[in-house]
Design goal:
This protein is an alpha/beta fold and about 210 residues long. The chain has one domain: Class I glutamine amidotransferase (GATase) domain (Rossmann fold, 3-Layer(aba) Sandwich), CATH 3.40.50.880. The protein is built from seven helices and eleven strands. Strands 5-2-1-6-7-11-10 form a seven-stranded mixed beta sheet, with helices on both faces. The chain has a two-stranded antiparallel ribbon with strand order 3-4. A hairpin with a 2-residue loop joins strand 10 and strand 11 (about 150). Helix 1 crosses helix 7. It starts with a strand and ends in a 29-residue tail after the last helix.
């Protein structure tokens, strides 16, 4: 199974590294191929918080993909208007068995024509923006599965979605092994004296509802 994870300028680091780690662990415990990073060109990609990564493939030499993962981040604001990137998503989604998005990657799926008439979710700060597109049934859940299309809430939710994906595509037992090796057992603990779920810190840019 070939799994490709899309990266682009200002992509959110954990939005792709979280799924990459879970998928990589899956490969380690089952001898599957590790995921690959794909960008428009094989050149360094600077992410939202300053991490720079070098993709394995550009759009032109990307092998066939069974699974396409589309992360989010501030970079989606520009990527959504990149016809080359959107066309890549649309073409690869047509041939893939599954398409997964994390956070505001949902807007890239929508622009590629993949969310109309489907249920989906995204980062809490962009839920209203997703609703305003008018043709998506927006669910406020950690992740949503609608046929071959998977969407998750913000950033770290991509880890939970990927574990569930592994559970369904492979087995709950294998997903349990991945979870164990990764030691991913989040505790229900909120810091900061119980900050409201939707109270954005100063550094979070809540994007105006214009798209």
């Amino acid at each position: 199974m070939n799994v490709g994870i899309l990266v682009f300028t200002a992509v959110e680091e954990l939005g792709f590294v979280g799924p990459w780690e879970m998928l990589g662990m899956w490969g380690a415990v089952t001898s599957r191929r590790p995921p690959i990073l794909v960008a428009q060109a094989v050149q360094p990609v600077r992410c939202a918080k300053g991490l720079t990564v070098l993709p394995d493939h550009g759009f032109d030499d990307c092998p066939p993909l069974d699974v396409l993962v589309v992360p989010g981040g501030q970079g989606t604001r520009r990527a959504v208007d990149n016809p080359v990137l959107i066309d890549f998503i649309a073409q690869r989604a047509a041939a893939a068995r599954h398409v997964l998005s994390v956070c505001t990657g949902a807007f890239l799926l929508h622009k590629a024509g993949l969310l109309a008439g489907r249920s989906a979710t995204t980062h809490w700060a962009s839920l209203d923006r997703l609703r305003e597109l008018g043709d998506v049934r927006v669910l406020e859940q950690r992740y949503v599965v609608d046929g071959p299309i998977w969407t998750s809430a913000g950033v770290s939710a991509g880890i939970d979605m990927t574990l569930e994906f592994i559970s369904r595509v492979d087995s709950p037992a294998v997903a349990g092994k991945v979870q164990l090796v990764a030691e991913y057992y989040p505790e229900d603990h909120r810091y900061g004296g119980g900050i409201a779920h939707r109270e954005a810190p100063d550094y979070v840019q809540v994007v105006p509802r214009h798209r």
